[in-house]
Structures are given as structure tokens and as C-alpha cells.
Write a structure and sequence with these properties.
The chain has five helices and seven strands, in the order H-H-E-H-E-E-H-E-E-H-E-E. The protein is an alpha+beta fold and 250 residues long. It has two domains: 95 residues, Helix Hairpins (Orthogonal Bundle); 147 residues, Histidine kinase-like ATPase, C-terminal domain (Heat Shock Protein 90), CATH 3.30.565.10. Strand 6 and strand 7 form a beta hairpin. Helix 2 packs parallel to helix 5, helix 3 crosses helix 4 and helix 4 packs antiparallel against helix 5.
Length: 250
């Protein structure tokens, strides 16, 4: 084929790719703007419901029977839960627009500091942290710190029923990427639900069993994907879980 025709085809393909990138960026921005708007607009009526429930409790609690007081308690608890869920949506929305500041991230130092902080936060827990070798990564220090923090919080929370909790942090080198992991001996989960694990508001336990809104792992997935990485998990009920995230080398 004539070089000029090849060049025209190459230029046309490049133009189509640029148009597609622009459309994807615009769509992503629209989704983030919509999420923020929905979350922001939901806050006002939610505050009203919570406020009137508080006023009802303060002014009329003695006039309510046991069932009425239970209903009022459910309203208050539900508005609090809804508020936390809205905050989760806002968190994900902000993560999509937060600019990346790439640098060489000292993963070993970062994790060791987080583990030290967790030991101070939970002095009464018997948690055995094992930290293996963690190679540096190329990425945003603040965002990767959030990834580790959410995964470690997850491990600490779901090992709570264990008298002696074991949490192992390590890594392995694969073709073109480094795989980091957090492994625990906690309650685990059924792998048939693995596809839902990193979805927003996905929870496999009741609020009474383990607190939370189901936002943390969704945040992990969003942050790792922003680094062109991937996340997955393996687990067995009552035998613990391992959460992995892989980042490109270099």
C-alpha cells in the first residue's frame, strides 16, 4: 500500500482514538458530577428527618408506647446509616477527580507506620502482624496509603472474633507487575459472592456483627484502578481471607 494511504489511515485511527478518549473522559465526569449532586441534594431532606426525629424524641417520648419508641429509634439509626452511605458516595466521587501525584512510594515504610498506628489504636487486641518484603511502587503516596489503610482496617475488623489474630502483609513479583497482599485468619467469606466483594455498599455481615457501610473495598478498587492495577481476593468461611492488589512495575 502507498505510504500516503497508510499515513492517512494511521491519522484517521489516531483521531478516532482521541475522540473515544474524550468521550470516555466526558462520561466519567458526568457520572462523578451526578454522584456528587445526588449525594449533596440528599443531605438536606435527611437532615430534616433526623432533626424532626430528635425533636419528637425530646418533646413527645413520654407519650409514645414501647412500639412507638422502637420505631423512632429505627428512624434515627437509619438516618445515621444513610448519612454514612452518602458520605461514601461523595468519597468515591472525590477520588475520581483527585489529581494524581506520581512518585516512588516506599511501601515497606508506609505499611510499617500504619501497623504501628494500628497497634496503638487497638492495645487490647492480640494481633500478630507479620510484614514481609514490600518493594517500592510508582504511584500516588496518599492514595496508596489509603489502599493499605482500608485493607488493614478490614483485616483487623474481621479478625475480631479470634482470640489471637494473625495478619500477614507481603508481596510477590510477577511478569510486569508486583502483587501485594493482606492475609488474615478472620471470619472469611463465601467465594460465591466474590464478584460482589468490591462493589459499593456490598456487605456480607450484619451491622450488629461488624460495623461499616461497605465502602472501603470499593475505594480500594477505585484507587488501584487509577494506578492501572487490579484487585481480587480469596477466602474461606471461618478460615480467613487474602486481599491482593497488583501494580505495574516501574
Amino acid at each position: 500500500m502507498h505510504p500516503e494511504k497508510l499515513q492517512k489511515k494511521a491519522d484517521a485511527a489516531e483521531g478516532q482514538q482521541e475522540l473515544l478518549r474524550k468521550q470516555v473522559a466526558e462520561l466519567r465526569q458526568e457520572i462523578e458530577d451526578l454522584s456528587y449532586a445526588i449525594s449533596h441534594d440528599l443531605r438536606a431532606p435527611l437532615r430534616a428527618v433526623h432533626g424532626f426525629a430528635g425533636a419528637l424524641r425530646e418533646d413527645c417520648e413520654e407519650q409514645l408506647d414501647a412500639q412507638g419508641q422502637r420505631y423512632l429509634s429505627i428512624i434515627t439509626t437509619s438516618t445515621h446509616q444513610m448519612s454514612r452511605m452518602i458520605e461514601g458516595i461523595l468519597t468515591l466521587s472525590r477520588l475520581g477527580s483527585q489529581p494524581m501525584r506520581p512518585s516512588e512510594v516506599p511501601m515497606q515504610q508506609l505499611v510499617e507506620q500504619l501497623v504501628s498506628d494500628f497497634k496503638k489504636t487497638f492495645p487490647d487486641r492480640q494481633i500478630n502482624f507479620q510484614i514481609g518484603q514490600l518493594p517500592n511502587a510508582c504511584g500516588d503516596l496518599v492514595l496508596l496509603q489509603q489502599v493499605w489503610s482500608h485493607l488493614l482496617i478490614n483485616a483487623v475488623k474481621f479478625t475480631r472474633p479470634k482470640e489471637n489474630a494473625d495478619i500477614e502483609i507481603g508481596s510477590s513479583s510477577e511478569a510486569g507487575e508486583v502483587v501485594y497482599y493482606v492475609r488474615d485468619n478472620g471470619v472469611g467469606f463465601d467465594m460465591k459472592y466474590e464478584s460482589k466483594l468490591f462493589g459499593l455498599f456490598q456487605r456480607f455481615h450484619t451491622e450488629k456483627e461488624f460495623e461499616g457501610t461497605g465502602v472501603g473495598l470499593a475505594v480500594v478498587r477505585r484507587l488501584v484502578r487509577r494506578h492501572d492495577g487490579r484487585v481480587w481476593a480469596q477466602a474461606e468461611v471461618d478460615s480467613g481471607a487474602t486481599f491482593y492488589f497488583a501494580l505495574p512495575k516501574g
